[in-house]
Write a structure and sequence with these properties.
The complex is a heterodimer of chains A (about 425) and B (about 550).
Chain A: E1 4-6, H1 8-16, H2 19-29, E2 34-36, H3 37-40, H4 47-56, E3 60-63, E4 66-69, H5 77-87, H6 93-101, E5 105-107, H7 110-122, H8 130-135, H9 165-179, E6 183-184, E7 190-192, H10 193-196, E8 217-219, H11 228-240, H12 254-258, E9 260-262, H13 267-276, E10 282-291, E11 303-312, H14 318-331, E12 336-341, E13 347-357, E14 361-371, H15 373-376, E15 385-390, H16 392-399, H17 413-418
Helix pairs in contact in A: 1-5, 2-4, 5-6
Chain B: E1 2-7, H1 8-15, H2 21-31, E2 34-38, E3 42-47, H3 57-67, E4 78-87, E5 95-102, H4 108-123, E6 132-138, E7 146-151, E8 156-157, E9 166-167, H5 168-174, H6 176-181, H7 183-186, E10 191-196, E11 199-203, E12 207-208, E13 221-227, H8 230-245, E14 250-257, E15 262-265, E16 271-276, H9 277-284, H10 290-299, E17 303-307, E18 310-315, H11 325-336, H12 356-370, E19 374-375, E20 381-382, H13 384-387, E21 400-401, E22 411-412, H14 417-425, E23 434-445, E24 453-464, H15 470-483, E25 489-492, E26 498-508, E27 511-519, H16 521-526, E28 533-539, H17 540-544
Parallel strand pairs in B: 4-7, 4-14, 19-23
Antiparallel strand pairs in B: 1-3, 2-3, 5-13, 5-14, 6-13, 7-10, 8-9, 10-11, 11-12, 14-15, 16-18, 17-18, 20-22, 23-24, 24-28, 25-26, 26-27, 27-28
The chains are: A alpha+beta (about 425), B alpha+beta (about 550).
């Protein structure tokens, strides 16, 4: 004889009651035991199912969009049936037929029974399988103990591996920058406002420091001042220009500078590097994540990679800045470049780099400039610093022929595998 | 970036020369803003925050005129003050500037321009009226003397476009602008107001009175500026009145009589900055003569005087962005034209190289891919639900974001495995076995660190198949370690995400550096997965330092 068990839906109804019964109970609360569908539809899960069976049982009547309770249910054989199947008692055939038809109860398969027997015999589950997951067979059972201190199985390759396509592009770009003499730097994701903005001479009330442009931390909230002198230099530069030859902003909010945020620009790492790397000349780059409170769509992510670099050395000028921009762009495959004035709070001689692609025409590819003395001098650097940033995401999208930036961090396994 | 659309006709009239669309775009692009599009009647320009003087159509036209050498730079005339404004101490908005502007020729272009510039300056430079707010009135409907007072919320005004008088408090409750901007002054119980003999005619930063509103008969203006930063208030006034002067209006100053000091506004005298010819040439990378340098500066709107090897450069009163001589240097480079500067690579040999940790990370990545695993890259920001709840873990202290934009991104990941399970859970229709890994940073709290947190490099791997047992994942891990020539030990351990008795700690040099095991079916159920998963996750930090 076949044995039966509850399906997932059956289990749920056992716990929460049959939907048609719930419908009747709710209608019972209404004056004249009548309600419009609109009023009750959101209160009942599986409303169409509930209505169908309540009508079939003759409990309710439907008039236009109104449902009227005719008689409250007294005895519900299906509910008793669910209970009996669960506890292994025999159930009346006609009830069983309805429950199977409603997909609340199913026949226990031969393999299920076999596996269950095996588990009981061997004192626990040997190995979790797909079948056990779909039939919930694992529930209420223990797993057999195994020795986890030794690797007994020999490795056998079962599928083809692959590096992620955007990471591959990033690694190529890194190699190229290294060949141009750039050294890789790193910095923390949770950053102090100080390095992300103040050291870059962005005034305390700069609009890009607002809650719509930067993530602030709830925990931990404030960072620790490690070098008081540098803080003083930067603070004075904001207030009155310090020894930089600048007028300064006239004020500085030191508490705000201590606030922890998620770094919103790779330039935070450039500021850290200027302070940390003492041996001049050098060239530095970083490709890593930055975070901005953007609404996510095909063009925007709130967590994405940026590529930035600096060149630090005596006698550097605007022509050199353009020279590096051109070289970097051409190394990355651009055929033609052009330059346009631009603005960044931390550079003067700010340049927008545009590159030409046959498919797209002129495209904005990056930004750059010479760091302001208000940025370099307080950090102890007294030579010009050329700074540039490259739209690495856009470059990768071009290479990978993507129109949606989200594919750079794709969770689509089929697509990832196809990019070998 | 601020995008503004102008009437092309008005712009060309103000420039005073017929230019083709190409010429107009080229000139504006090379000055700094970017032209987004030009139609028969309109031109849309993207502006940068450092040049609010170009936001107004008159200022933009002036810059083009100067750049193309259409007209010589002229000095702005300001007639001496006849009007004095007595300024009380108003704590929430202590700084003001006023001006009288006469001989206004009212037409559609001027009205449009005035409305545009007020709105844009309020939004950007004025930080949504917080830092500066502008009020423009019909001067002939004001009966001096004018006073700037700390008014009480019960004082009354007839606000713009209303007939009935109401209290300032009611303005904040019932009038749209009051609802929008009331928060700026609410913290105080004394609110800023300009009054004349007839009562309050301006309630900054909220609204003007209906009595002094501009009409087509307006000939003379009274302008009030109020704010929290004196320098910005004065600069905003300069931008506005010099724009009006471009249309032939006559500016008269106003004396502001504060409690302890007097100032006269607007002050259109030019500030000076002294620069060195050699410094400027070196910074740009050119070798211009003194005469050539002066003509370049003129093109950018500056007058300059040579004194031996130095220059005195006169900064126009509307240029609010000049803090340092490098700001002048940039304008010299722009005046020459970026495209006229020949790109050069200096002789600056430096040795490039990778970060140590990245070198080791790449070794691990390549080895993992060779063993048949697909690399993935996932987000650093994630949710408590993914990191803890679904993984059967108790919430611990973790780096948490104060202003998340979505419930899915509220914390920084403290392990990678949940992200991998998420990927497996959305790919259940894709062929098995599925074997994925990620090498990346997590964020851990660290009281000793400057940022109270640290990035820590890890690798996490997850394999999923109809059978994904301990020995299966262990064989992959073992092969990975052999490939990297790393010796390790396994020790039985418990982890809430893994099946009891099916999880081991990975020991390297007597330190636990991670774990390996079979994922609990309860966890799989939380991810709505039906395929078993086994996984390992380890710190690469210690492993890399052999």
């Amino acid at each position: 004889m076949a044995r039966y068990k509850l399906t997932k839906e059956g289990e749920e109804y056992l716990k929460k009651g049959l939907p048609e019964k719930n419908l009747a109970l709710i209608l019972n609360e209404f004056p004249e035991k009548t309600a419009t569908i609109g009023k009750i539809i959101s209160r009942i899960k599986n409303f169409p199912v509930a209505l169908k069976w309540a009508l079939e049982n003759g409990w309710v009547q439907k008039k236009a969009d109104k449902i009227i309770l005719l008689r409250p249910p007294v005895e519900i054989p299906e509910e008793k049936g669910l209970k009996d199947v669960f506890s292994g008692k025999t159930v009346d055939d006609s009830v069983l037929k309805v429950l199977v038809q409603r997909n609340l109860v199913e026949v226990i398969s031969e393999t299920y029974l076999k596996t269950q027997k095996e588990i009981e015999k061997s004192g626990g589950i040997e190995e979790l399988t797909h079948d056990m997951m779909t039939t919930d067979l694992w529930k209420g059972k223990t797993f057999k103990k195994i020795d986890v201190t030794k690797v007994t199985k020999k490795f056998k390759k079962t599928s083809e591996g692959n590096l992620q396509s955007y990471r591959k592009v990033i690694e190529e770009v890194k190699e190229k920058l290294i060949s141009l003499g750039f050294k890789e730097a790193k910095g923390p994701y949770v950053e102090m406002n100080f390095w992300n903005t103040d050291a870059l001479f962005m005034p305390s009330d700069h609009p890009a420091r607002g809650i719509h442009d930067m993530f602030s931390m709830k925990t931990p909230k404030y960072g620790k001042i490690l070098n008081k002198q540098i803080w003083k230099n930067v603070g004075e530069t904001h207030k009155n220009g310090w020894r930089t030859g600048s007028k300064g902003w006239g004020s500085w909010d030191e508490d705000l500078a201590k606030r922890l945020i998620l770094r919103s620009q790779g330039t935070a790492v450039s500021a850290r590097t200027l302070y940390n790397w003492k041996k001049i000349p050098y060239k530095m780059f970083i490709i890593d994540r930055v975070f901005r409170p953007e609404a996510i769509d095909a063009q925007h992510l709130s967590d994405f990679d940026q590529c930035e670099g600096i060149v630090v050395g005596k006698g550097l000028n605007m022509k050199h800045l353009l020279g590096y921009l051109e070289t970097i762009a051409k190394t990355m495959g651009a055929k033609k470049v052009r330059f346009k004035p631009s603005y960044f709070p931390f550079t003067e001689g700010s340049v927008e780099l545009q590159v030409y692609y046959n498919e797209l025409g002129w495209v904005e590819a990056g930004g750059s400039g010479i760091f302001r003395p208000e940025v370099t001098k307080p950090l102890g650097v007294n030579v010009p610093v050329l700074a540039w940033g490259l739209g690495i995401g856009r470059l990768a999208m071009l290479k990978l022929r993507l129109t949606d930036i989200r594919y750079l961090y794709s969770d689509n396994l089929q697509w990832l595998r196809s990019k070998r | 970036m601020t995008t503004i659309t102008y009437s092309k006709n008005d712009l060309l009239n103000l420039i005073g020369k017929k230019l083709t669309d190409e010429q107009l775009k080229e000139a504006i692009d090379q000055i700094k803003p970017g032209v987004e599009k030009i139609s028969d009647t309109e031109i849309t320009v993207e502006h940068y925050a450092d040049r609010p003087d170009l936001f107004g159509i008159e200022g933009l036209a002036r810059a083009v005129r100067q750049y193309l050498g259409i007209q010589k730079n002229e000095k702005f005339e300001v007639k001496d003050y006849k009007l004095t404004v007595d300024a009380e101490k108003v704590e929430v908005r202590p700084f003001i500037a006023c001006a009288v502007v006469k001989n206004i020729k009212f037409n559609d272009d001027l009205i449009k321009s005035l409305m545009n510039i007020q709105e844009v300056l309020h939004e950007t430079f004025g930080r949504k009226r917080m830092r500066v707010a502008i009020g423009v009135h019909d001067y002939d409907h004001i009966v001096p003397p004018i006073k700037y007072v700390a008014a009480s919320p019960a004082d009354r005004i007839v606000p713009l476009e209303r007939q009935e008088e109401m209290s300032l408090k009611d303005v904040l409750i019932n009038v749209e602008k009051g609802i929008d901007y009331g928060h700026i002054i609410k913290k105080s119980d004394k609110w800023p107001a300009f009054v004349d003999q007839k009562g309050i005619f301006s309630f900054p930063p909220i609204i003007n009175s209906d009595r002094t509103k501009l009409t087509e008969n307006t000939k003379n203006l009274f302008i009030d500026m109020t704010g929290t930063n004196e320098k910005i208030v004065l600069q905003t006034m300069n931008i506005l009145v010099t724009n009006l002067a471009e249309r032939g209006a006559k500016i008269e100053s106003v004396k502001i009589d504060y409690d302890k000091k007097n100032i006269v506004t607007p002050n259109l005298s030019t500030e000076k900055i002294v620069i060195d010819l050699k410094d400027a040439n070196e910074w740009v990378g050119v070798d211009l003569s003194a005469e050539k340098m002066i003509s370049v500066l003129q093109k950018m709107g500056y007058e300059a005087k040579k004194e031996k090897n130095k220059f005195t450069v006169f900064i126009p009163p509307y240029r609010t962005d000049i803090l340092h001589s490098v700001d002048i240097f940039e304008d010299i480079a722009i005046g020459i034209g970026y495209m006229n500067l020949k790109p050069e690579i200096p002789n600056l040999p430096t040795k490039g190289g990778r970060d140590e940790e990245e070198i080791f990370s790449n070794k691990v990545r390549e080895a993992a891919a060779k063993l048949g695993m697909q690399e993935v890259v996932t987000g650093i920001m994630t949710s408590e639900k993914d990191q803890f709840e679904r993984m059967n873990l108790k919430r611990t202290e973790i780096a948490e974001i104060e202003n998340p934009v979505s419930v899915d991104f509220t914390i920084m990941r403290h392990w990678i495995l949940p992200n991998l399970l998420k990927i497996l859970s959305v790919n259940q229709h894709v062929s098995y076995p599925q074997q994925i890994f990620e090498v990346g940073d997590i964020v851990v709290l660290d009281r000793n660190a400057e940022t109270q947190t640290r990035n820590v490099r890890k690798i996490s791997a997850a394999i999923s198949n109809s059978k994904a047992g301990f020995q299966y994942i262990a064989s992959i891990f073992d092969a990975l370690m052999k490939n990297l020539k790393i010796k390790y030990k396994l020790k039985e351990t418990d982890h809430p995400s893994f099946i009891a008795g099916r999880c081991a700690a990975l020991i390297f040099k007597n330190k636990e550096i991670g774990f390996i095991g079979e994922i609990r079916p309860e966890v799989l159920e939380n991810w709505k997965m039906e395929m078993p998963v086994a996984s390992f996750e380890i710190f690469l930090e210690t492993l890399g330092k052999k």
